[in-house]
Amino acid sequence: MITVLRLGHRVVRDQRLTTHVALTARAFGADGIVISGEKDEGIIRVIKRVCEEFGGNFDARFIESWRGFVKEWREKNRTGIIVHLTMYGVDIDDERCGEMLRKIKEGADVLVVVGGPKVEGQMYQIADYNIAAGNQPHSEVAALALFLDRAIERKKLKGKFENGRIRIISNPRGKTIVQNKTKDQTE
Length: 187
Fold this sequence. Notes:
There is one protein chain. The chain is α/β, with parallel strands linked by helices. The chain is built from 7 helices and 8 strands; from the N terminus they run βαβαβαβαβαβαββα. It has one domain (2-186): SPOUT methyltransferase, trefoil knot domain (Alpha/beta knot), CATH 3.40.1280. The strands form 2 sheets. Strands 3-2-1-5-4-6 form a 6-stranded parallel beta sheet, sandwiched between helices. Strands 7-8 form a two-stranded antiparallel sheet.
């Protein structure tokens, strides 16, 4: 199971970015997102609406304390790994990341931490791996997409999301949208 922890959400400044972090996590195969910071139910509504429309079982929720959540997660997932995405970490393509990717491919539970405003130094110590998608300033969305792409090897990216009302079919020119039959339509 892959869970994304978004640190330090700020309602006025981060609504769109946090929503994009959640949408990217869902689309690239994570199982859910946990958001710390200022509570913003609008983001949860958007994610639920996307899941209803496009399918999938993706959990999204707010928490009060990221420290408490990480402590609980670690207790429940003793063999799981915590990956902190930061531009200060080891480059994702560095050979030192091989062990981490191997553990993920073998089915280890993963908590992927993405920051917001200044990430507290404690997170660098808590994480099993501090990973960089390049060492230049960039978006949390970009870092998460690159990390999940490498971690799942595109397996879930090409998978189908169950129970959605619509499905998008690849099309080199234009838009192909398929309306799925809902449970009510089949009865």
